[in-house]
């Protein structure tokens, strides 16, 4: 039998571990300052995982259908079961002869896996890594079916599908709300003076607005050389 001096801290720890399971949390509706809280907000305010399960009372709350979703991205915003999980997932298809806009994810690392097709990937990591000539390192990868690459949080990256068939992919993120930043669009949202100095005065002031207007609005860009090849 353990001595009393040893039993006391063990018992105290067992009581502490048992409290979250036995304590009855106050209903969120009583704690909220507004009755208009979204389900996602209620889930974020929940004291325990048990309370989150009570809010997600239906079994179908834990199923996400990519085929019927307006956007092929499951995040805490549209799949509430991910709230508090720290992960999200995207499934999609990169059309033939297309390139994703240069972008980054400010709050998540992305694992990009190719389910079918062929993709050329380019990624620029943080400032510091350099190549053998001392220039900013750019990591290029050629991906085929069943291959994966990683884009650390905050790294610039893009993918090109150089073939005449779509490339299907799955992308996993270590954040339930990973977000997307479009590099060109956000850079040219700055004032003209900042842009001119950033690019070493290589863009004349009167041309900055032309560049802004020329930036494509879509996330996917067409690769003209590939289109010409596929139309033959």
From TrEMBL:
Gene3D superfamilies per UniProt: Jelly Rolls
GO CC terms, sorted: extracellular region
Residues passing through the membrane, by range: none
GO terms for MF: manganese ion binding
Keyword Metal-binding: yes
Alphabetized UniProt keyword annotations: Manganese, Metal-binding, Secreted, Signal
Domain named Cupin type-1: residues: 53-209
Annotated localization: Secreted
Top-rank taxon, per record: Eukaryota
Keyword Manganese annotated: yes
Signal sequence, renumbered to the chain: 1-23
Family classification: Belongs to the germin family.
Name assigned to this protein: Cupin type-1 domain-containing protein
